[in-house]
């Protein structure tokens, strides 16, 4: 075991232990007493159900993570990466097709191993707590659609990255960075109109009081409202959500049909005000710029380590290749990825507070608070998460902190 292997192994162990500790503290922080703030929306039975949901999902997450780690370590130390490489190289497909096949087989293998966990999560856990609306047909179709999109969109991008690092010695990382950046921007533009409708129906919000109230609010904050859509979220789950996506003429605000069913018009306008707040505060642009910068750093470091023999020796590889280097570097890069992920989540929580403040000041705080309470109840959210768990995992602040911040103004 050389230094590369030790770093990767330590990273895997630290990541697993940190999340295990966070899960333990999070379960310990479950408070059997309902926070007074939620007396008007929760009853004792629903609150108890939300705590049991957190317990079940947490324990299942630990089991899933442990299984994935064990499979990776067994495959690694049994020489699985080199074994698979020898098989695929024997097919003599050429450098790029060999790389695509190798990475594709690994992704397919991981997907097959994860399938039982996905099935159990959807049809047992989510079903038990009354969330699941996914039929076996929808489940299978989603997998097939995801696979097709991965091949059609991800395949050419991966082929391009492999080609850059295979045939261009100098500045290959710049070409790869440029290609990924362009790909990301294009996806942002086409996703709302071309990709998302593959999985869900987007119907324009019908004329009526709600749409008029939304129009009035949008006019009051000078927001050009291109489209308000209702998404058939109830096709898969009873959970509620709303989101803002796209740029320019393709930008959309989408409301889950379950959200509309369970909230008043005023609460829905407040939710939309929050989403518009993200746009007005340029959070989407800021996140994209940060992501692009992070990608550039990753490709620069990849160009440094891609030809390091020690990286391949750590995985018992007999031959050096770009495609295996991409995989191994991804594991080596994990500590940096972990740190940047935590930083991005800290920023994300800050942005959520800012969007809440925008919604509260440009509309009204009361329906925003009422909407957050209902969302937490409908989704059986954990009302008392441990701060360490929040630090590692939450992209949104805990709902109690959001409500206190809104009321404080």
From TrEMBL:
<feature type="transmembrane region" description="Helical">
    <location>
        <begin position="146"/>
        <end position="168"/>
    </location>
</feature>
<keyword id="KW-1133">Transmembrane helix</keyword>
<keyword id="KW-0482">Metalloprotease</keyword>
<feature type="transmembrane region" description="Helical">
    <location>
        <begin position="99"/>
        <end position="125"/>
    </location>
</feature>
<keyword id="KW-0472">Membrane</keyword>
<keyword id="KW-0378">Hydrolase</keyword>
<feature type="transmembrane region" description="Helical">
    <location>
        <begin position="60"/>
        <end position="79"/>
    </location>
</feature>
<protein>
    <submittedName>
        <fullName>M48 family metallopeptidase</fullName>
    </submittedName>
</protein>
<feature type="transmembrane region" description="Helical">
    <location>
        <begin position="288"/>
        <end position="306"/>
    </location>
</feature>
<keyword id="KW-0645">Protease</keyword>
<feature type="domain" description="Peptidase M48">
    <location>
        <begin position="204"/>
        <end position="408"/>
    </location>
</feature>
<keyword id="KW-0812">Transmembrane</keyword>
<keyword id="KW-0862">Zinc</keyword>
<keyword id="KW-0479">Metal-binding</keyword>
<feature type="transmembrane region" description="Helical">
    <location>
        <begin position="174"/>
        <end position="195"/>
    </location>
</feature>
<dbReference type="InterPro" id="IPR027057">
    <property type="entry name" value="CAXX_Prtase_1"/>
</dbReference>
<comment type="similarity">
    <text>Belongs to the peptidase M48 family.</text>
</comment>
<dbReference type="InterPro" id="IPR032456">
    <property type="entry name" value="Peptidase_M48_N"/>
</dbReference>
<dbReference type="Pfam" id="PF16491">
    <property type="entry name" value="Peptidase_M48_N"/>
</dbReference>
<dbReference type="InterPro" id="IPR001915">
    <property type="entry name" value="Peptidase_M48"/>
</dbReference>
<feature type="domain" description="CAAX prenyl protease 1 N-terminal">
    <location>
        <begin position="27"/>
        <end position="201"/>
    </location>
</feature>
<feature type="transmembrane region" description="Helical">
    <location>
        <begin position="6"/>
        <end position="25"/>
    </location>
</feature>
<dbReference type="Pfam" id="PF01435">
    <property type="entry name" value="Peptidase_M48"/>
</dbReference>
<feature type="transmembrane region" description="Helical">
    <location>
        <begin position="326"/>
        <end position="347"/>
    </location>
</feature>
């Amino acid at each position: 075991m050389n230094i590369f292997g030790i770093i990767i192994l330590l990273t895997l162990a630290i990541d697993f232990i940190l999340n295990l500790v966070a899960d333990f503290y999070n379960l310990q922080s479950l408070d059997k007493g309902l926070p007074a703030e939620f007396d008007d929306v929760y009853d004792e039975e629903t609150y108890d159900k939300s705590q049991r949901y957190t317990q079940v999902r947490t324990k299942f997450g630990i089991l899933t993570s442990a299984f994935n780690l064990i499979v990776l370590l067994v495959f690694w130390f049994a020489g699985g990466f080199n074994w698979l490489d020898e098989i695929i190289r024997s097919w003599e497909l050429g450098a790029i097709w060999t790389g695509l096949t190798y990475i594709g087989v690994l992704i397919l293998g991981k997907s097959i191993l994860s399938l039982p966990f996905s099935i159990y999560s959807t049809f047992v856990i989510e079903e038990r707590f009354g969330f699941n609306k996914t039929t076996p047909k929808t489940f299978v179709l989603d997998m097939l659609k995801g696979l097709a999109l991965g091949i059609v969109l991800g395949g050419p991008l991966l082929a391009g990255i492999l080609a850059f690092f295979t045939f261009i010695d100098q500045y290959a990382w710049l070409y790869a960075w440029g290609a990924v950046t362009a790909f990301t921007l294009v996806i942002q533009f086409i996703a709302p109109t071309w990709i998302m409708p593959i999985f869900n129906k987007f119907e324009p919000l019908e004329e009526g009081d709600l749409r008029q109230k939304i129009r009035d609010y949008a006019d009051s904050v000078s927001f050009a409202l291109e489209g308000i859509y209702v998404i058939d979220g109830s096709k898969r789950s009873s959970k509620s959500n709303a989101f803002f996506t796209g740029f320019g003429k393709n930008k959309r605000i989408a409301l889950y049909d379950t959200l509309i069913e369970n909230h008043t018009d005023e609460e829905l306008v407040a939710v939309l005000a929050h989403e518009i707040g993200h746009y007005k505060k340029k959070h989407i642009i800021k996140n994209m710029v940060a992501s692009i910068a992070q990608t550039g750093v990753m490709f620069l470091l990849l160009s440094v380590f891609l030809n390091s023999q020690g990286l391949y020796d750590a995985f018992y590889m007999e031959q050096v290749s770009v495609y295996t280097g991409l995989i191994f570097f991804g594991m080596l890069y994990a500590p940096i990825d972990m740190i940047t992920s935590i930083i991005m989540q800290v920023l994300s929580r800050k942005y959520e507070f800012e969007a809440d403040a925008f919604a509260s000041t440009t509309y009204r705080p009361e329906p925003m608070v009422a909407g957050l309470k209902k969302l937490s109840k409908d989704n059986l959210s954990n009302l008392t998460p441990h701060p360490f768990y929040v630090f590692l995992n939450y992209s949104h602040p805990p709902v109690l902190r959001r409500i206190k911040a809104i009321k404080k103004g």
